[in-house]
Protein backbone atom coordinates (compact mmCIF):
# COMPACT_ATOMS: atom_id res chain seq x y z
CA UNK A 1 0.00 0.00 0.00
CA UNK A 2 1.35 3.44 -0.92
CA UNK A 3 1.75 5.79 2.03
CA UNK A 4 -0.33 8.95 1.87
CA UNK A 5 1.88 11.94 1.19
CA UNK A 6 1.88 14.79 3.64
CA UNK A 7 1.79 18.41 2.51
CA UNK A 8 5.52 18.63 3.26
CA UNK A 9 6.11 15.60 1.02
CA UNK A 10 4.20 17.21 -1.83
CA UNK A 11 6.00 20.52 -1.40
CA UNK A 12 9.35 18.72 -1.34
CA UNK A 13 8.43 16.93 -4.58
CA UNK A 14 8.21 20.34 -6.24
CA UNK A 15 11.58 21.63 -5.05
CA UNK A 16 14.72 21.51 -7.23
CA UNK A 17 16.71 19.49 -4.68
CA UNK A 18 19.96 21.35 -5.28
CA UNK A 19 20.26 21.38 -1.46
CA UNK A 20 21.85 24.83 -1.74
CA UNK A 21 20.50 26.28 1.58
CA UNK A 22 19.66 29.59 -0.13
CA UNK A 23 16.10 29.33 1.22
CA UNK A 24 17.57 29.74 4.70
CA UNK A 25 17.18 26.07 5.63
CA UNK A 26 19.85 23.35 5.67
CA UNK A 27 18.31 21.45 2.74
CA UNK A 28 15.17 21.17 0.62
CA UNK A 29 13.31 18.90 3.04
CA UNK A 30 13.48 21.24 6.07
CA UNK A 31 12.32 24.10 3.84
CA UNK A 32 9.39 22.00 2.62
CA UNK A 33 8.44 21.28 6.22
CA UNK A 34 8.74 24.96 7.15
CA UNK A 35 6.47 25.97 4.25
CA UNK A 36 3.98 23.27 5.19
CA UNK A 37 3.97 24.49 8.80
CA UNK A 38 3.57 28.10 7.79
CA UNK A 39 7.01 29.01 9.15
CA UNK A 40 8.46 29.95 5.74
CA UNK A 41 7.02 31.60 2.67
CA UNK A 42 6.87 29.74 -0.65
CA UNK A 43 9.02 32.28 -2.51
CA UNK A 44 12.41 31.56 -0.97
CA UNK A 45 13.94 29.12 -3.44
CA UNK A 46 16.15 30.82 -6.06
CA UNK A 47 17.02 27.62 -7.98
CA UNK A 48 13.30 26.98 -8.54
CA UNK A 49 12.81 30.57 -9.62
CA UNK A 50 9.51 31.99 -10.82
CA UNK A 51 8.29 28.67 -12.17
CA UNK A 52 9.02 26.98 -8.87
CA UNK A 53 7.01 29.62 -7.04
CA UNK A 54 4.13 29.16 -9.48
CA UNK A 55 4.17 25.39 -8.86
CA UNK A 56 4.12 25.87 -5.09
CA UNK A 57 1.43 28.54 -5.35
CA UNK A 58 -0.77 26.15 -7.34
CA UNK A 59 -0.28 23.41 -4.76
CA UNK A 60 -1.00 25.72 -1.85
CA UNK A 61 -3.86 27.57 -3.55
CA UNK A 62 -2.11 30.88 -3.17
CA UNK A 63 -1.19 33.70 -5.57
CA UNK A 64 2.05 33.74 -7.53
CA UNK A 65 4.44 36.17 -5.86
CA UNK A 66 7.98 37.32 -6.72
CA UNK A 67 11.06 35.54 -5.45
CA UNK A 68 12.24 37.00 -2.16
CA UNK A 69 15.42 38.85 -3.13
CA UNK A 70 16.82 38.26 0.36
CA UNK A 71 17.27 34.63 -0.67
CA UNK A 72 19.09 35.38 -3.92
CA UNK A 73 18.32 35.75 -7.59
CA UNK A 74 17.13 33.37 -10.26
CA UNK A 75 20.12 32.75 -12.53
CA UNK A 76 21.60 30.33 -15.05
CA UNK A 77 22.79 27.17 -13.34
CA UNK A 78 26.48 27.14 -12.43
CA UNK A 79 28.80 24.15 -12.44
CA UNK A 80 31.71 23.87 -10.02
CA UNK A 81 35.08 23.39 -11.71
CA UNK A 82 38.23 22.76 -9.67
CA UNK A 83 41.56 24.09 -10.89
CA UNK A 84 43.44 20.87 -10.47
CA UNK A 85 46.85 22.50 -10.49
CA UNK A 86 46.03 24.69 -7.50
CA UNK A 87 44.10 22.13 -5.44
CA UNK A 88 46.01 21.14 -2.30
CA UNK A 89 43.77 18.17 -1.51
CA UNK A 90 42.43 19.47 1.80
CA UNK A 91 39.05 17.69 1.23
CA UNK A 92 37.05 20.63 2.60
CA UNK A 93 35.03 21.01 -0.60
CA UNK A 94 34.21 17.31 -0.61
CA UNK A 95 32.91 17.56 2.94
CA UNK A 96 30.76 20.57 2.01
CA UNK A 97 29.18 19.05 -1.10
CA UNK A 98 25.62 17.99 -0.21
CA UNK A 99 25.30 15.49 -3.06
CA UNK A 100 28.75 13.84 -3.12
CA UNK A 101 29.63 15.33 -6.49
CA UNK A 102 33.32 15.75 -5.65
CA UNK A 103 35.86 12.95 -5.65
CA UNK A 104 39.38 13.02 -4.26
CA UNK A 105 41.52 11.91 -1.36
CA UNK A 106 43.51 13.75 1.31
CA UNK A 107 46.47 15.56 -0.24
CA UNK A 108 45.31 14.48 -3.72
CA UNK A 109 43.75 16.55 -6.46
CA UNK A 110 39.96 16.78 -6.26
CA UNK A 111 37.54 16.78 -9.19
CA UNK A 112 33.87 17.63 -9.63
CA UNK A 113 31.73 15.04 -11.39
CA UNK A 114 29.90 17.42 -13.68
CA UNK A 115 26.82 15.23 -14.10
CA UNK A 116 26.23 15.22 -10.34
CA UNK A 117 26.88 18.88 -9.54
CA UNK A 118 23.72 20.83 -8.66
CA UNK A 119 25.48 24.19 -8.82
CA UNK A 120 24.75 24.88 -5.17
CA UNK A 121 28.02 26.82 -4.60
CA UNK A 122 28.54 25.28 -1.17
CA UNK A 123 32.00 23.98 -2.03
CA UNK A 124 33.35 27.42 -2.93
CA UNK A 125 33.67 29.22 0.45
CA UNK A 126 35.56 26.44 2.28
CA UNK A 127 38.33 26.17 -0.33
CA UNK A 128 41.44 27.71 1.28
CA UNK A 129 43.14 28.41 -2.05
CA UNK A 130 40.12 29.69 -4.02
CA UNK A 131 40.60 27.16 -6.78
CA UNK A 132 36.91 26.41 -7.44
CA UNK A 133 35.23 28.37 -10.22
CA UNK A 134 31.49 28.28 -10.88
CA UNK A 135 30.83 29.23 -14.49
CA UNK A 136 27.25 29.19 -15.75
CA UNK A 137 26.50 26.26 -18.02
CA UNK A 138 22.93 26.78 -19.14
CA UNK A 139 23.17 29.89 -21.28
CA UNK A 140 20.17 32.12 -20.64
CA UNK A 141 18.09 29.32 -19.15
CA UNK A 142 17.32 29.76 -15.45
CA UNK A 143 15.29 28.02 -12.75
CA UNK A 144 13.43 24.91 -13.89
CA UNK A 145 14.37 25.70 -17.51
CA UNK A 146 17.96 24.96 -16.47
CA UNK A 147 17.29 21.90 -14.30
CA UNK A 148 15.09 18.93 -15.08
CA UNK A 149 12.84 16.92 -12.74
CA UNK A 150 15.01 13.85 -13.33
CA UNK A 151 18.11 15.81 -12.28
CA UNK A 152 16.23 16.93 -9.17
CA UNK A 153 15.22 13.34 -8.37
CA UNK A 154 18.80 12.14 -8.77
CA UNK A 155 20.13 14.94 -6.56
CA UNK A 156 17.55 14.14 -3.91
CA UNK A 157 18.56 10.47 -3.87
CA UNK A 158 22.23 11.33 -3.63
CA UNK A 159 21.54 13.77 -0.80
CA UNK A 160 19.51 11.14 1.07
CA UNK A 161 22.20 8.51 0.55
CA UNK A 162 24.84 10.93 1.80
CA UNK A 163 22.76 11.66 4.90
CA UNK A 164 22.44 7.95 5.60
CA UNK A 165 26.16 7.40 5.09
CA UNK A 166 27.09 10.27 7.41
CA UNK A 167 24.73 8.91 10.05
CA UNK A 168 26.38 5.47 9.76
CA UNK A 169 29.82 7.03 10.05
CA UNK A 170 28.74 9.02 13.10
CA UNK A 171 27.32 5.91 14.75
CA UNK A 172 30.50 3.97 14.01
CA UNK A 173 32.68 6.76 15.41
CA UNK A 174 30.57 6.92 18.56
CA UNK A 175 30.77 3.14 18.93
CA UNK A 176 34.56 3.24 18.58
CA UNK A 177 34.80 6.05 21.13
CA UNK A 178 32.59 4.11 23.55
CA UNK A 179 34.75 1.01 23.06
CA UNK A 180 37.88 3.03 23.76
CA UNK A 181 36.34 4.48 26.90
CA UNK A 182 35.30 1.04 28.07
CA UNK A 183 38.77 -0.37 27.36
CA UNK A 184 40.46 2.44 29.24
CA UNK A 185 38.12 2.11 32.23
CA UNK A 186 38.61 -1.65 32.67
CA UNK A 187 42.24 -1.66 33.89
CA UNK A 188 41.49 1.09 36.39
CA UNK A 189 38.55 -0.84 37.78
CA UNK A 190 40.59 -4.05 37.95
CA UNK A 191 43.42 -2.42 39.88
CA UNK A 192 43.84 -3.38 43.55
CA UNK A 193 42.28 -0.87 45.95
CA UNK A 194 45.68 -0.35 47.59
CA UNK A 195 47.26 0.46 44.27
CA UNK A 196 46.94 4.02 43.10
CA UNK A 197 43.87 3.84 40.88
CA UNK A 198 45.13 6.74 38.89
CA UNK A 199 48.05 4.70 37.54
CA UNK A 200 46.02 2.79 34.94
CA UNK A 201 43.71 5.64 34.13
CA UNK A 202 46.58 8.05 33.80
CA UNK A 203 48.38 5.63 31.50
CA UNK A 204 45.38 5.38 29.22
CA UNK A 205 43.74 8.80 29.39
CA UNK A 206 46.59 10.52 27.58
CA UNK A 207 46.02 8.13 24.64
CA UNK A 208 42.67 9.70 23.84
CA UNK A 209 44.10 13.13 24.53
CA UNK A 210 47.08 12.35 22.34
CA UNK A 211 44.82 11.29 19.48
CA UNK A 212 42.84 14.52 19.77
CA UNK A 213 46.03 16.57 20.01
CA UNK A 214 47.48 14.79 17.00
CA UNK A 215 44.30 15.43 15.03
CA UNK A 216 44.37 19.10 15.96
CA UNK A 217 48.04 19.32 15.00
CA UNK A 218 47.35 17.74 11.58
CA UNK A 219 44.50 20.17 10.92
CA UNK A 220 46.61 23.08 12.11
CA UNK A 221 49.48 22.02 9.85
CA UNK A 222 47.13 21.72 6.85
CA UNK A 223 45.70 25.17 7.51
CA UNK A 224 49.20 26.58 7.87
CA UNK A 225 50.26 25.01 4.55
CA UNK A 226 47.17 26.47 2.89
CA UNK A 227 47.91 29.88 4.39
CA UNK A 228 51.51 29.78 3.19
CA UNK A 229 50.42 28.71 -0.27
CA UNK A 230 47.92 31.55 -0.37
CA UNK A 231 50.63 34.02 0.63
CA UNK A 232 53.02 32.67 -2.00
CA UNK A 233 50.31 32.98 -4.64
CA UNK A 234 49.47 36.51 -3.53
CA UNK A 235 53.18 37.46 -3.73
CA UNK A 236 53.22 36.24 -7.32
CA UNK A 237 50.11 38.22 -8.15
CA UNK A 238 48.07 35.04 -8.16
CA UNK A 239 46.01 35.79 -5.09
CA UNK A 240 42.44 34.80 -4.45
CA UNK A 241 39.77 36.01 -6.80
CA UNK A 242 37.51 38.83 -5.81
CA UNK A 243 34.07 37.28 -5.93
CA UNK A 244 32.17 40.16 -4.43
CA UNK A 245 29.51 42.16 -6.19
CA UNK A 246 29.87 40.83 -9.71
CA UNK A 247 27.30 39.04 -11.82
CA UNK A 248 27.60 35.31 -12.40
CA UNK A 249 28.54 35.90 -16.05
CA UNK A 250 31.26 38.39 -15.19
CA UNK A 251 32.54 36.13 -12.45
CA UNK A 252 32.72 33.21 -14.86
CA UNK A 253 34.82 35.28 -17.25
CA UNK A 254 37.08 36.44 -14.42
CA UNK A 255 37.49 32.89 -13.18
CA UNK A 256 38.36 31.56 -16.61
CA UNK A 257 40.91 34.32 -17.22
CA UNK A 258 42.42 33.96 -13.74
CA UNK A 259 42.69 30.20 -14.09
CA UNK A 260 44.52 30.49 -17.42
CA UNK A 261 46.86 33.17 -16.09
CA UNK A 262 47.65 31.26 -12.95
CA UNK A 263 48.21 28.09 -14.87
CA UNK A 264 50.68 29.69 -17.22
CA UNK A 265 52.55 31.11 -14.22
CA UNK A 266 52.46 27.83 -12.35
CA UNK A 267 53.63 25.59 -15.15
CA UNK A 268 55.94 28.02 -16.83
CA UNK A 269 55.15 26.65 -20.25
CA UNK A 270 52.47 27.17 -22.80
CA UNK A 271 51.92 23.51 -23.43
CA UNK A 272 49.95 22.86 -20.28
CA UNK A 273 47.48 20.03 -20.82
CA UNK A 274 44.76 22.12 -19.16
CA UNK A 275 45.55 25.40 -20.78
CA UNK A 276 41.89 25.94 -21.57
CA UNK A 277 40.25 23.78 -18.97
CA UNK A 278 37.42 26.21 -18.30
CA UNK A 279 36.59 26.49 -21.93
CA UNK A 280 34.30 24.11 -23.73
CA UNK A 281 35.62 20.68 -24.58
CA UNK A 282 38.70 20.72 -22.38
CA UNK A 283 40.03 17.50 -20.89
CA UNK A 284 40.33 16.14 -18.31
CA UNK A 285 38.33 18.87 -16.54
CA UNK A 286 34.54 18.66 -16.88
CA UNK A 287 33.05 20.56 -19.79
CA UNK A 288 31.21 23.44 -18.09
CA UNK A 289 29.61 24.71 -21.26
CA UNK A 290 27.75 21.52 -22.00
CA UNK A 291 24.11 21.77 -21.02
CA UNK A 292 22.83 18.78 -19.18
S1 LIG B 1 16.98 24.16 -3.87
FE1 LIG B 1 18.08 25.35 -2.33
S2 LIG B 1 16.79 27.14 -1.94
FE2 LIG B 1 15.52 25.63 -3.01
S3 LIG B 1 14.52 24.52 -1.34
FE3 LIG B 1 16.36 23.36 -1.88
S4 LIG B 1 17.92 24.09 -0.44
FE4 LIG B 1 16.25 25.60 -0.41
S1 LIG C 1 30.44 20.31 -6.52
FE1 LIG C 1 30.13 22.24 -5.38
S2 LIG C 1 28.55 23.35 -6.54
FE2 LIG C 1 28.53 21.20 -7.24
S3 LIG C 1 26.98 20.20 -5.97
FE3 LIG C 1 28.93 19.88 -4.93
S4 LIG C 1 29.10 21.61 -3.50
FE4 LIG C 1 27.48 22.14 -4.95
S1 LIG D 1 38.73 22.79 -0.95
FE1 LIG D 1 39.99 23.54 -2.67
S2 LIG D 1 42.06 22.91 -2.16
FE2 LIG D 1 40.71 21.73 -0.82
S3 LIG D 1 40.40 19.80 -1.93
FE3 LIG D 1 38.73 21.17 -2.52
S4 LIG D 1 39.41 22.20 -4.38
FE4 LIG D 1 41.20 21.25 -3.43
Automatic annotation (TrEMBL):
<feature type="compositionally biased region" description="Low complexity">
    <location>
        <begin position="180"/>
        <end position="208"/>
    </location>
</feature>
<feature type="domain" description="4Fe-4S">
    <location>
        <begin position="3"/>
        <end position="62"/>
    </location>
</feature>
<dbReference type="InterPro" id="IPR017896">
    <property type="entry name" value="4Fe4S_Fe-S-bd"/>
</dbReference>
<dbReference type="Pfam" id="PF14697">
    <property type="entry name" value="Fer4_21"/>
</dbReference>
<dbReference type="InterPro" id="IPR007202">
    <property type="entry name" value="4Fe-4S_dom"/>
</dbReference>
<dbReference type="GO" id="GO:0046872">
    <property type="term" value="F:metal ion binding"/>
</dbReference>
<dbReference type="GO" id="GO:0051539">
    <property type="term" value="F:4 iron, 4 sulfur cluster binding"/>
</dbReference>
<keyword id="KW-0249">Electron transport</keyword>
<feature type="compositionally biased region" description="Basic residues">
    <location>
        <begin position="156"/>
        <end position="165"/>
    </location>
</feature>
<keyword id="KW-1003">Cell membrane</keyword>
<keyword id="KW-0411">Iron-sulfur</keyword>
<keyword id="KW-0472">Membrane</keyword>
<keyword id="KW-0408">Iron</keyword>
<feature type="domain" description="4Fe-4S ferredoxin-type">
    <location>
        <begin position="78"/>
        <end position="107"/>
    </location>
</feature>
<dbReference type="GO" id="GO:0009055">
    <property type="term" value="F:electron transfer activity"/>
</dbReference>
<feature type="compositionally biased region" description="Pro residues">
    <location>
        <begin position="283"/>
        <end position="292"/>
    </location>
</feature>
<feature type="compositionally biased region" description="Polar residues">
    <location>
        <begin position="240"/>
        <end position="250"/>
    </location>
</feature>
<feature type="region of interest" description="Disordered">
    <location>
        <begin position="148"/>
        <end position="210"/>
    </location>
</feature>
<keyword id="KW-1278">Translocase</keyword>
<dbReference type="Pfam" id="PF04060">
    <property type="entry name" value="FeS"/>
</dbReference>
<feature type="region of interest" description="Disordered">
    <location>
        <begin position="229"/>
        <end position="292"/>
    </location>
</feature>
<keyword id="KW-0479">Metal-binding</keyword>
<keyword id="KW-0813">Transport</keyword>
<feature type="domain" description="4Fe-4S ferredoxin-type">
    <location>
        <begin position="108"/>
        <end position="137"/>
    </location>
</feature>
<dbReference type="InterPro" id="IPR050294">
    <property type="entry name" value="RnfB_subfamily"/>
</dbReference>
<keyword id="KW-0677">Repeat</keyword>
<keyword id="KW-0997">Cell inner membrane</keyword>
<keyword id="KW-0004">4Fe-4S</keyword>
<dbReference type="InterPro" id="IPR010207">
    <property type="entry name" value="Elect_transpt_cplx_RnfB/RsxB"/>
</dbReference>
<dbReference type="InterPro" id="IPR017900">
    <property type="entry name" value="4Fe4S_Fe_S_CS"/>
</dbReference>
<protein>
    <submittedName>
        <fullName>Electron transport complex subunit RsxB</fullName>
    </submittedName>
</protein>
Amino acid sequence: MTAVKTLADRIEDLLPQTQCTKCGYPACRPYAEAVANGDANYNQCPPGGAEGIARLAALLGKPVIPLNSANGVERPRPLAVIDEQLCIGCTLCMQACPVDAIVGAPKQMHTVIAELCTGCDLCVPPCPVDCIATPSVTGDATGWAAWSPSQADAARKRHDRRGARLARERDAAEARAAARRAASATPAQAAAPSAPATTSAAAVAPTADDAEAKKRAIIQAALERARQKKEEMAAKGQGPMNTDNVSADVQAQIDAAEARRRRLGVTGNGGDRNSNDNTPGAEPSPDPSKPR
